[in-house]
Every structure is written in C-alpha cells, then in structure tokens.
Design brief:
elongated, 2 helices, Alpha-Beta Plaits, two-stranded antiparallel sheet, 6-stranded mixed sheet, alpha+beta, about 160 residues, single chain
C-alpha cells in the first residue's frame, strides 16, 4: 500500500510544481504537462491532448529490513515540430522535475527522494514527439513488526 501512497503523493506534488510550466500541444493552446499514474488515457477517451505529460510508473521495491527503497520511473514527453525546440523543451521538463524533487527532498512528510537522479532519452525519437525516462529512488516508511496482540516488537513509527 505504501508504494501506492507514494505514487499518489508524487502525482499531487508534480501537479503543483509543474502546473505553471506551459508547453506546446497538438492544438493552438499551450498547457502544463498532464500528470498521470501508470499510463496515458486510452485514445479517444479524453479531449485532453496527450502531450505534454509526465507518467508516474512504479518500477520496483527493495526492502532490506532496515529500509525500503521504491524505484519510480517518470516517463516525460513533449511535442514540437521544431527539432531544437522539442529537445530543449524535453530537457527543461526534466530539469524542472529534478529541481522540484531535490529542493524539497521529502514529499507528504514521509517519502524521501534519494540520489542518484538518472534520466535517459532514446536515440530514436518519434518526431514530433520527444520523450525520456527519469529514474528516481525513494525511501519509504519501514514496516513495524507486531506480535499477536498488536504490540510492537521491533521498529519505529515511520509516518504511516
């Protein structure tokens, strides 16, 4: 459940932080990136242009018992007929995302983004669409072990 709460908190955070960054769409109107969890809406189910976007996709978790780290992929996409503008908008969206995450480091008072921050853009881009994948790692609250009577055995309260 905690990774799902992280995904929800990250969506709310990015909507707030990227909400004023206006980019080109396939219409005359510029808009802020839509922030979606897992996948873009199916074609024809929404009037909202797909681009620009940030897709928040949970990629995995490693729990060592001492701490739990969740890997989150952020798939980012922009649209531009101009090659220089498109690649520049993509880099700016990546950088705005990085700065927003690492200025605060903790979101929803319980999820902490960790270094390294990594991103990769495929060599082949589906012109006029420009996309990249950002990989982030998050420390999440650890599980509190209890006995049969609900008493804590080990661990600390970690925000859940």
């Amino acid at each position: 459940m905690t990774p799902l709460l992280l995904q929800d908190a990250l969506a709310d955070f990015l909507k707030k932080e990227l909400g004023t960054y206006l980019l080109d769409t396939n219409t005359e109107i510029k808009k802020a990136p839509q922030i979606v969890k897992n996948f873009l809406p199916l074609k024809g189910t929404s009037d909202t242009p797909d681009f620009p976007f940030v897709i928040i996709r949970m990629a995995g978790e490693e729990d060592t018992g001492e701490q739990a780290i969740v890997t989150v992929k952020l798939i980012v996409g922009v649209l531009s007929e101009d090659v220089q503008q498109g690649s520049g908008d993509l880099l700016n969206l990546i950088e705005r995302t990085r700065q927003a995450l690492f200025k605060k480091r903790v979101i929803d008072k319980r999820f902490r983004v960790e270094y390294p921050f990594e991103w990769e853009a495929p060599d082949e881009q589906p012109y006029p669409e420009w996309m990249a994948v950002i990989t982030t790692r998050w420390t999440i609250p650890k599980l509190i072990e209890e006995d049969d009577y609900g008493q804590r055995i080990f661990g600390e309260v970690a925000g859940c």
